[in-house]
Design goal:
The complex is a heterotrimer of chains A (172), B (647) and C (195). Chain A is an alpha/beta fold and 172 residues long. Chain A contains 5 helices and 7 strands. In chain A, a hairpin with a 5-residue loop joins strand 1 and strand 2. The two termini of chain A are 25 Å apart. Chain B has 647 residues and is mainly α. The radius of gyration of chain B is 48 Å and the shape is rod-shaped. Chain B has 23 helices and no strands. In chain B, helix 9 runs antiparallel to helix 10 and helix 13 runs antiparallel to helix 14. Chain C has 2 domains: 76 residues; 112 residues, Immunoglobulin-like (Sandwich), CATH 2.60.40. In chain C, the strands form 2 sheets. Chain C has a 4-stranded mixed beta sheet. In chain C, a hairpin with a 2-residue loop joins strand 2 and strand 3. The chains are: A alpha/beta (172), B mainly alpha (647), C alpha+beta (195). Chains in contact: A-B, A-C, B-C. Chains B and C meet through helix 1, helix 2, helix 3, helix 4 and helix 5 of B and helix 1, helix 2, helix 3, strand 1 and helix 4 of C.
């Protein structure tokens, strides 16, 4: 959607005769919390392609995981539980797998029998946009499309906090 | 962007928010004659419309119009724009667009649609006569879904104008889809009931109340029809008919409480108090939140009293009083909390300060103590409208925030561009001013014609190597010198020698002439290519130079203006948001207060009834004593009523 | 007395009577219907009205502002003289599930778009997507596009197309057309230059 076209991409495409002299607007290294969640479209392990912005109006949880990360399995199950409970209140969960090998990713996903879509980011473009520096990493996005909370790793107290934050976002 | 997100909320709990409903159809331009898309940009707008992204669609449509990119879709664009504005709740804008389409040069199909939407606009603003007029301008039929909506709209307008007969006739003549006509019949029936014309209303409500359907929506409507009919009969003292209608209401549906209450009253009106107890006791076991249940707390002891079970009646009244007391206390507490802004805090959670608080579409009410009281108000028209506004304001604010973010990038761009231009444009200009290619061209022309001369004159010497030419020149000088010298043997010998040497040189040069000429021609061609290359680069440079409009000054001015407008609008959006918030709070408090009043009224009634019952009990006790003392018993058959009841 | 009491309580019961006219059911665009006033016993009617009016005018202003911002952004980033826009349209008889399209201009990849079911539905209905917006120098260029997707019977399709075009001063529009004109149940790909 045009107004949200990343300015950076637009700048990169300028090819006029006078040499391109626009400073590549490098995104500041500020944390993404409080900022607009970078939009993306990814293929799903099973099912149709998914675009983040089509879910505006819902509370979205984007969780980055890999098939080799040990705590990811437990975390995905926890997410699945919260999905069952809160789905009807407007929750959408997107699991983004970052494995290089897409087939392995799809197999791993199949093994967990999760109810929410698993998306594949083998090029890791989306992971870069979201500055994923740890797996699992879970991003909570509010109904306005803004990143509100980020969880790195998974633990019991972490899960409690996550549920609390989720309720807050759903009630907004 | 999901401005069109459907309001699927507890409509079942609607109370007296009397509204006419038009069964809303999306303002869907795929109902427009989908002609070939002749302007690509119009197709782009439709791409967003078909995804329900109305705001994006409006922005693009306006922008493309501004750039005049939609020459072949003028009329449709206006219609589409009007519809999009309508869906955003911007009636004035919508109206203006539609009115612009009412000229004779617009095709009839488009004009009809314009009239239709205009009718909706007027209706929404409460101008019934204009709305009717607009709808009647439509010649011929619209496409089925719009046609159905038109009929319903017209019927509603006529009802609101009190022209019930006309509405009835229109409904009779209308062969619309079943669902739509049921809505119309329901509305008409209810309108007539409110006018006290039950006899006329009954057939409509009966039809609506006996439809065969499986859809949830329709089932709910059927329940409502039966409920309305039932209560109307009760009021008209026709309890038997009331019972029939009320018994059609689903027991597990959202209206069952009221139906149970009404059924009880119907039985009671027929004198069957024992039978009345059945629905009332069932009701009494339900949550006290429901006003029907509250009334059952009084109705049950009333029935006992009528059955002369006075002790039981007294007991029940006592229970009712204490339940009501508890409830009142809770209500008071809730009111306090809402007044103190507590309601919003509970609903918004911790981020209230950081964020303009807003409600989204509430499909499940959050877990705050006062939530339970607010179901009714949350489902009401006013609250829903307020909520929608609140959401819209939040959305708009969000889009402006995004733009704000980009503004900095734009400024940087313009700065960088300015700086680069400051460096390069003067250089380019200087270069362009020198007119180099023309020079080169002339140079080339000169060389070419010179070479032509040489060829034509077979001027071998001209193409000699530097040494050869030097030698040739020297020989020619010697020749000239010798020409002047006297003729003697020495000079002649020299002349002869010279002639020989010159001959050899000439021979050599002529041998290489062709080759050299060829060489030179090649060089000339290369030069020509280079000149052409330079020329085209020149053209590109001067083109590019032309593109540098040099009015980034204009951009800067626009940017500054937009920045200012964003800031100003954000402020006003925030102000409107909090006003809307305050309004929603007032609604909530009003609702809580009215619930409190109702409970208080019931309490008053209960107390009076209780007093009467106690009297009766003690009177019954007296005959025993009087019998013992011989006095005549006084009898009373029913508790004296007291107090006014709020309708 | 008896009657009175009963009536009194009955009327209280009628406080809950459902004499509300049928409200709009769950539907998409509620505004015209839901906004019908007059009967609505709004708490403070004039309050609502003036608040509503100011919100309407705010919305209207926001719409205008958004347009101006959109216009500025494009004029700044993609001035008309250098602009090139590539559009995508679908005209298929049987359903064709477009998965992705990639675009190269002069051998540089400039776009790679994944399509969701919602977008495909919009294309099939007749929407035209402005897939790519960029700037190009005056002169000759080459555009190459590939699409892939699933046709009826879940068959996979991959197609490509190339076009050479001249960029002059002024915006250039190219349209990628996916259609099954031949009705051979095979989607084809062509590129149209809107000169």
């Amino acid at each position: 959607m045009s107004p949200q076209q990343p300015v950076r991409a637009a700048l990169a495409s300028l090819l006029i005769v006078l040499p391109a002299f626009f400073a590549a607007a490098v995104a500041a290294d500020a944390p993404i919390v409080g900022r607009e969640a970078p939009d993306f479209a990814l293929r799903a392990a099973h099912g149709p392609n998914v675009r983040l912005s089509e879910h505006r109006g819902e509370v979205i949880v984007v969780s980055f995981w890999g098939s080799r990360c040990s705590t990811c399995a437990a975390q995905l199950q926890a997410l699945d539980r919260s999905y069952t409970i809160f789905r009807s209140a407007g929750l959408e969960i997107l699991g983004v797998n970052v494995d290089d090998d897409q087939r392995r990713a799809a197999e791993a996903a199949g093994g967990y029998s999760l109810q929410f879509p698993i998306l594949l980011d083998p090029q890791k473009g989306v992971s870069r946009d979201y500055r994923v520096d740890n797996l699992p990493m879970t991003v909570l996005i509010d109904r306005d499309g803004r990143v509100r909370y980020v969880h790195r790793d998974f633990s019991k107290p972490g899960e409690t906090l996550y549920l609390q934050e989720l309720r807050g976002l759903l009630n907004e | 962007m999901r401005l069109l997100q459907s309001l699927a909320l507890c409509l079942s709990l609607t109370t007296l928010a009397a509204l006419h409903a038009v069964r809303a159809a999306p303002e869907d331009p795929d109902k427009l004659p989908v002609t070939r898309i002749r302007d690509l940009h119009y197709g782009d707008v439709l791409f967003y419309v078909y995804q329900d992204e109305s705001f994006e669609a409006i922005t693009r449509l306006n922008a493309y119009e501004h750039w005049k990119l939609l020459p072949d879709h003028q009329a449709e664009a206006q219609l589409l724009l009007g519809g999009l504005y309508l869906s955003l709740g911007l009636h004035n804008e919508a109206g203006r667009r539609f009115e612009a389409l009412l000229t004779p040069d617009i095709p009839a199909g488009v004009r009809n649609r314009a009239w239709f939407y205009l009718g909706k606009v007027w209706y929404a603003r409460g101008y019934l006569d204009q709305a009717e007029h607009a709808l009647r301008q439509i010649g011929g039929r619209l496409i089925p879904s719009l046609e159905a909506e038109r009929q319903l709209l017209l019927a509603n307008i006529l009802m609101r104008q009190g022209k019930f007969a006309a509405a009835g006739e229109q409904l009779a003549a209308w062969q619309g889809p079943a669902d739509w006509t049921v809505y119309a019949r329901f509305n008409l029936g209810v309108a007539l009931v409110r006018q006290g014309r039950l006899a006329e209303a009954a057939p409509y409500l009966n039809t609506a109340g006996t439809i065969e359907t499986a859809s949830q929506e329709m089932l709910a409507l059927r329940d409502r029809a039966n409920l309305a009919l039932g209560f109307a009969y009760l009021q008209a003292n026709q309890p038997a008919e009331a019972k029939t209608a009320l018994e059609r209401v689903r027991l597990n549906g959202p209206y069952s409480s009221k139906a149970l209450l009404g059924t009880g009253w119907a039985e009671s009106a027929l004198g069957k108090f024992q039978d009345a107890l059945t629905p009332w006791l069932e009701l009494r076991g339900r949550s006290l939140l429901d006003s029907a249940v509250q009334e059952s707390y009084l109705a049950v002891p009333y029935a006992y009293a009528r059955l002369s079970a006075n002790a039981q009646a007294a007991d029940e009244y006592e229970k009712a009083l204490s339940s009501f007391d508890a409830e009142r206390t809770q209500l008071d507490a809730s009111i306090e909390r809402v007044r103190g802004g507590g309601m919003l805090d509970a609903l918004l959670g911790a981020d209230k300060d950081r964020y303009r608080g807003w409600f989204w579409q509430l499909t499940s009410v959050p877990q705050a103590p006062e939530s339970r009281y607010l179901y009714t108000v949350l489902a009401g028209h006013d609250f829903q409208e307020g909520l929608k506004n609140y959401r819209d304001l939040s959305f708009l604010s969000g889009t402006l925030d995004r733009w704000s973010g980009s503004m900095d990038a734009f400024e940087n761009m313009i700065d960088a561009r300015n700086r680069a231009y400051a460096q390069r444009v003067p250089r380019a200009d200087a270069l362009l001013a020198t007119n180099e290619p023309d020079e080169m061209l002339r140079h080339h022309a000169e060389l070419a014609s010179r070479l032509d001369e040489v060829s034509h004159d077979a001027d071998f010497a001209a193409l000699g190597s530097p040494e050869e030419r030097a030698q040739w020149a020297k020989l020619q000088r010697l020749e000239a010198d010798l020409a002047a010298a006297p003729h003697d043997a020495a000079n002649d010998a020299l002349r002869e020698r010279l002639r020989l040497v010159k001959g050899v040189l000439y021979f050599r040069m002529s041998g290489s002439f062709k080759e050299r000429e060829w060489e030179q021609r090649k060089n000339l061609r290369a030069l020509q290519a280079a000149v052409r290359e330079a020329q085209s680069r020149w053209v590109r440079l001067s083109d590019a130079r032309k593109l540098v409009t040099g009015d980034t000054g204009a951009f800067e001015a626009r940017l500054a203006d937009l920045h200012r407008r964003i800031a100003s609008l954000q402020m006003r959006l925030a102000a409107a948001s909090s006003e809307q918030n305050a309004y929603l709070e007032r609604l909530a408090i009003a609702e809580l207060n009215s619930q409190k009043e109702r409970i208080e009224t019931y309490q008053v009634q209960a107390r009076f009834a209780l007093a009467t019952i106690y009297d009766r009990i003690s009177n019954e006790a007296r005959p025993a004593k009087d019998a013992a003392s011989g006095a005549a018993p006084a009898t009373q058959h029913s508790p004296a009523p007291a107090g006014e009841a709020p309708p | 007395m008896r009657k009175f009491f009963r009536t009194v309580v009955l009327l209280a019961g009628l406080a809950a009577a459902p004499y509300a006219l049928a409200q709009a059911p769950a539907a998409s665009a509620p505004s015209a219907s839901a906004a019908a006033p007059a009967d609505a016993p709004a708490a403070a009617a004039s309050d609502t009205q003036s608040l509503d009016q100011s919100i309407q005018s705010l919305k209207s202003e926001a719409v205008d502002l958004n347009r101006d911002l959109f216009v500025l952004e494009e004029e700044l980033l993609f001035p008309a003289n250098t602009q090139v826009a590539v559009f995508l349209s679908m005209d298929v008889g049987d359903f064709f599930n477009l998965d992705s399209v990639s675009l190269k201009i002069d051998d540089h990849e400039v776009a790679n778009y994944l399509y969701t079911p919602r977008e495909v539905a919009a294309l099939i209905k007749g929407g035209v997507q402005r897939l790519y917006l960029g700037n190009l120098k005056v002169g000759d260029h080459e555009l190459t596009a590939f699409f892939n997707g699933k046709g009826p019977n879940d068959r996979d399709y991959k197609r490509g197309a190339t076009i050479r075009f001249k960029k002059a001063i002024g915006a250039k529009y190219l349209e990628l057309k996916i259609n099954d004109r031949q009705r051979r149940l095979q989607p084809e790909f062509e590129i149209k230059d809107w000169e």
